[in-house]
Write a structure and sequence with these properties.
The complex is a heterodimer of chains A (about 400) and B (about 180). Chain A has helices at about 10-20, 20-60, 70-80, 90-95, 135-145, 195-205, 235-245, 255-295, 300-305, 310-340, 345-350, 360-390, 395-400; strands at about 60-65, 85-90, 100-110, 125, 150-155, 165-170, 170-180, 190-195, 220, 225-230, 250. With about 400 residues, chain A is an alpha+beta fold. Chain A folds into two domains: about 10-55 and about 260-400, no CATH class; about 70-245, no CATH class. In chain A, β6 (about 165-170) and β7 (about 170-180) form a beta hairpin. The radius of gyration of chain A is 31 Å and the shape is elongated. Chain B is mostly helical. Chain B folds into two domains: about 1-30 and about 70-180; about 30-70, no CATH class. Chain B is built from six helices and three strands. Chain B has helices spanning about 1-20, 35-40, 55-60, 70-95, 100-125, 135-179; strands at about 30, 60, 70. In chain B, strands 1-3-2 form a three-stranded antiparallel sheet. In chain B, a hairpin with a 6-residue loop joins β2 (about 60) and β3 (about 70). In chain B, α1 packs antiparallel against α4 (about 70-95), α1 runs antiparallel to α6 and α4 runs antiparallel to α5. The radius of gyration of chain B is 22 Å and the shape is elongated. Classes of the chains: A alpha+beta (about 400), B mainly alpha (about 180). At the A-B interface, β6 and α11 of A face α2, α3, β3 and α6 of B.
Chain lengths: ~400, ~180
């Protein structure tokens, strides 16, 4: 039989193999901890990332919509739920006259058809290139230029045909670029100039779909986005618009963000609390378990000492066993968490109903390293006291114990 | 016995999840009728199908002349039902059959079934295109994970059985020589 040197590492491995149930229990405790640490960190990171992305994307201080369509507008922006509503273009001109309004730009919304089978309805957003201060800066940053005449820009969730076009209401348009993911409803939108969207509204009308029941298509708008002058309060300007322009509702972006941010903050708080509680629980459980296991292995360690093992070697064996169990648990828990949070990220985002944007590769690797470090460390830290205690035990007395 | 039980139970569980999951816990989208679609579209429309749905209709199969459309993911669900049942039955056979070589053959078949189960939602049939569709958000990742686990478990079981069988034969040969 092949003989191998009895190193610290090999003794630890043999010990773990000899007591598979004890090792499995330790591994499961650390795996639960690692799952909570890594999964929780990715979840909170994605929520914070999504919130930042949404704040960057809103772009306007106020959003003026027809009365009764506030929730539709929020649905478009946050949930990507297609909607269409209109008021007269005269409203846009009235809004621009209200005190404190620095810039006002109209937008026009259409919805493509809900598909018969696999596809979803898509939000179509038309903007006025002459006055727009919301869509174009984003497009310029994400795409590096403006769309050409008759071209569309698609959100990240839009499926583009193989020939690089999109077809709505029998009209085919070339897609200039697909924008980066934002985790907002705008990912499920297609952006185009006012000319294109008005032509689409006319095409929809010809195809038998009446989006505009009362308004003349050439003068109708869906929303007016407002940037307020410096020194003005958003709520005061909103109140001015409400009193000066009848039949409209004003959404204050900061209030909307604050509401979402509040929900997100409490969720992140829960996740962080659960992670911290699990870490403390794992430390307490392991710190309680190690002295017990060391106690029942006193004679084993006394034999090592009798065979010439130094006290340092005994500490090494115990710490190594704890490290191996922690490492196995840490890798297992992190792998299970990765199997849950990455493939199901779209589902998690939709269930939470909050902006959810996964961190970049660097962020994920950083979180992974930190989670593994904390999981790996928990075993050696909690077993240190038991290791030192067992190494100090008197060999002769331990061997004679119980006689 | 321990290997037979553990490996058999693992494949029964994986097979049942692959078979029943797309119909229950991580559902595919099902079959939509023209009437359902019209309900979803809250606007007056004529019978012309003029938008992105055309692309989808081209992907799906017409179930009948009455505009019932079978989605790609529905086909994936049906295929997974058959394949999952096959994996589960193979798991039962792994428990019942004693011969290591037969179980090795079954493990290789399970490995190939796992690859097929992985290819069905990802390449051979696929799922719907929409990012927010249930089949894309749930069924695709769940089937990918389950079939990957089946592939890994089958490969590990095959390697274990091959080595164990090889050791056994070497032992028998050595015993025969000594005898």
């Amino acid at each position: 039989m092949k003989q191998r040197p009895l190193t610290t590492n090999r003794i630890s491995i043999y010990n773990i193999r000899r007591k598979p149930f004890r090792a499995a229990c330790l591994i499961i405790v650390v795996a639960i901890l690692a799952f909570a640490l890594f999964g929780g960190a990715i979840l909170t990171g994605s929520l914070k990332n999504g919130m930042n992305s949404m704040q960057q994307r809103l772009g306007a201080d106020l959003m003026v919509v027809p009365a009764g369509h506030e929730s539709d507008m929020k649905g478009i922006l946050l949930g990507g739920e297609p909607a269409y509503f209109y008021f007269s273009g005269a409203v846009a001109r009235q809004v621009a006259q209200v005190g404190g309004v620095a810039q006002a730009t109209p937008q026009f919304y259409l919805s493509s058809l809900s598909a018969d089978c696999c596809d979803e309805a898509v939000q179509l957003i038309g903007f006025d290139p002459g006055t727009d201060f919301v869509i174009q800066p984003w497009i310029a940053r994400a795409y590096g230029g403006a769309a050409g005449d008759g071209q569309l820009l698609a959100g990240s969730g839009i499926i583009i045909r193989d020939d690089g076009t999109l077809k709505f209401f029998n009209q085919t348009y070339r897609v200039a670029a697909q924008l980066e993911r934002t985790s907002t409803g705008l990912d499920n939108s297609v952006f185009m100039s006012m000319d294109i969207i008005k032509a689409l509204a006319a095409a929809a009308h010809n195809a038998g779909m009446n989006f505009l029941s009362d308004e003349a298509p050439e003068d109708a708008v869906s929303a007016v986005l407002v940037k307020i002058d410096k020194g003005y309060d958003a709520d005061a300007v909103a109140a001015g618009i409400r009193s000066g322009v009848p039949g409209v509702e004003v959404i204050v972006s900061q209030s909307m963000i604050s509401g979402i941010s509040g929900n997100l903050g409490s969720l992140v708080g829960y996740i962080n609390t659960i992670s911290a509680v699990l870490w403390i629980l794992a430390v307490v459980v392991l710190a309680a378990v190690f002295p017990f296991t060391m106690n029942e292995r006193k004679k084993e360690f006394a034999i090592y000492r009798a065979m010439g093992a130094t006290r340092k070697r005994l500490i090494g064996i115990v710490l190594n066993e704890a490290l191996l169990a922690s490492a196995a648990g840490g890798v297992l828990g992190t792998a299970i968490a990765a199997f849950v949070v990455f493939p199901f990220s779209a589902y998690i985002g939709s269930r939470l109903n909050l902006p959810y944007l996964q961190p970049g590769t660097g962020g994920i690797l950083g979180t992974l390293a930190l989670s593994l470090l904390l999981s790996f460390a928990v075993g050696p830290i909690t077993s240190l006291y038991a290791a030192v205690k067992i190494s100090r035990a008197e060999t002769y007395m331990t061997m004679r114990e119980g006689e | 016995m321990k290997n037979r039980l553990i490996s058999g139970i693992i494949f029964i569980i994986l097979g049942l999840f692959i078979a029943v999951g797309p119909q229950t816990v991580f559902p595919v989208c099902g079959v939509h009728t023209a009437a359902q679609s019209a309900e979803q579209t809250s606007m007056p429309m004529n019978s012309q199908e003029t938008d992105q749905s055309e692309q989808c209709a081209a992907d799906g199969d017409a179930m009948s002349a009455s505009m019932n459309m079978m989605m790609k993911c529905h086909g994936t669900g049906q295929a997974a039902l058959g394949l999952g049942a096959l994996i589960a039955v193979s798991g039962v056979l792994l428990i019942l059959l004693r011969s290591k070589q037969t179980r090795l053959g079954l493990s290789i078949a399970l490995f190939l079934n796992g690859i097929l189960a992985l290819l069905i939602p990802t390449a051979l049939i696929g799922v719907c295109d929409g990012a927010q569709m249930s089949c894309r958000m749930l069924a695709l990742p769940a089937l990918t994970i389950l079939s990957s686990l089946a592939i890994i478990a089958a490969a590990a079981n095959a390697v274990y059985l091959y080595q164990s069988d090889k050791k056994e034969r070497q032992k028998n040969e050595a015993a025969a020589v000594n005898h």
